[in-house]
From TrEMBL:
InterPro entries: DUF6158. Pfam families: DUF6158 (PF19655). It comes from the Bacteria. It comes from Thermocatellispora tengchongensis. The lineage of its organism: Bacteria, Bacillati, Actinomycetota, Actinomycetes, Streptosporangiales. Residues 57-78 are annotated as: Disordered. This is Uncharacterized protein.
Length: 78
């Protein structure tokens, strides 16, 4: 359901991804089983298309395991 992610412009793909991420919690907490299944499928479709288009996306070093370890060490030392 919805427009095939491959047919979306980059701008539309970003907008659709923002929307599914904004609505995830409400769908998980209050949606029917069918609504949750559809939401999960749509999220995956959009994210797969994003990764296909942007395989070399910028990765924040703080989001890597080393960054998490550093934050943990800093928290323990304060």
């Amino acid at each position: 359901m919805g427009i095939d992610p491959r047919e979306l412009s980059d701008e539309d793909l970003f907008r659709e991804m923002r929307h599914v991420h904004e609505t995830r919690s409400d769908t998980l907490r209050h949606g029917s089983e069918d609504a949750l299944a559809h939401h999960t499928t749509r999220t995956a479709e959009l994210e797969i298309e994003y990764l296909r288009r942007f395989p070399e996306r910028e990765v924040d070093p703080e989001r890597l395991r080393e960054g998490a370890r550093r934050r943990g060490q800093e928290a323990r030392s304060t």
